[in-house]
Design goal:
By secondary structure, the protein is an all-alpha fold. The chain has a domain of 79 residues. It is 54% helix and 0% strand. It is built from 3 helices and no strands. Helix 1 packs antiparallel against helix 2 and helix 2 packs antiparallel against helix 3. The chain is elongated and about 90 Å long.
Length: 118
């Protein structure tokens, strides 16, 4: 007859297992960082900008969208990594450069296209 295999390393073969206390997860806060809150605000403003561009003045919509992206880039630049939340996707310099480039491109685009008669 063989002895039963202990369930944990170092435990004696006939020793009862110690009860494990359940770990209660920390209650989740939405959003959990200040960057997450800013992300939601920027997302809503960008959605509003798209609606303005679609249903009213497209130039104004692009200016608002460019401002949202520039604001996101500025926030990504000044917020620490642990507080950046969803604004932090890649390395800080890459995030800021991409957001600034797209914001600048949209701003240039809305100003460079001449008015066309409808």
């Amino acid at each position: 007859m063989s002895d039963p295999v202990p369930s944990e390393p170092g435990a004696a073969p006939g020793e009862p297992e110690a009860p494990v206390a359940p770990v209660e997860p920390e209650p989740r806060r939405y959003p959990s960082t200040i960057g997450g809150a800013f992300y939601i605000v920027i997302l809503l403003a960008a959605a509003g900008a798209v609606l303005v561009a679609a249903y009213d003045d497209w130039r104004l919509g692009l200016r608002i969208l460019a401002g949202c992206l520039a604001g996101a880039g500025l926030l990504r630049l000044v917020l620490p990594q642990r507080d950046a939340g969803m604004l932090a996707v890649r390395h800080r310099a890459v995030d800021v450069a991409l957001l600034a480039a797209v914001a600048g491109a949209l701003w240039w685009l809305q100003g460079s296209i001449p008015d066309q008669p409808m």
